[in-house]
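Input record, target 12 of the design panel.
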């Protein structure tokens, strides 16, 4: 939801939480909660009941996230799989409500 709000504000400029809620087909309390969390993080600003996005900070956060994503989620050298060295046991089968091992 927060990325949708940021995209809306970038494309449309400053807007009230009601405008955003209407455009994104979400409830006003949900939008207000996300806006306040993003305002606390410094990603959006509020003036005269209208919220605007701080594009330079959003861009910085996106760049930082992309760089750490590559290092942690998609590393060049794969990590050792969690189940390496262990053989998974197959699920027991049942026949006539009796377990077959």
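The sequence produced for target 12 reads:
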């Amino acid at each position: 939801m927060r990325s949708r709000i940021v995209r809306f504000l970038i494309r449309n400029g400053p807007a009230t939480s009601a405008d955003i809620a209407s455009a994104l087909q979400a409830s006003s309390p949900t939008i207000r909660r996300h806006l306040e969390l993003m305002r606390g993080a410094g990603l959006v600003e509020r003036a005269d009941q209208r919220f605007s996005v701080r594009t330079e900070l959003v861009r910085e956060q996106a760049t930082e996230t992309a760089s750490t994503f590559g290092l942690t989620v998609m590393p060049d050298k794969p990590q050792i799989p969690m189940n390496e060295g262990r053989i998974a046991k197959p699920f027991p089968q049942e026949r006539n409500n009796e377990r077959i091992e």
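The CA atoms of residues 63 and 69 lie 10 Å apart.
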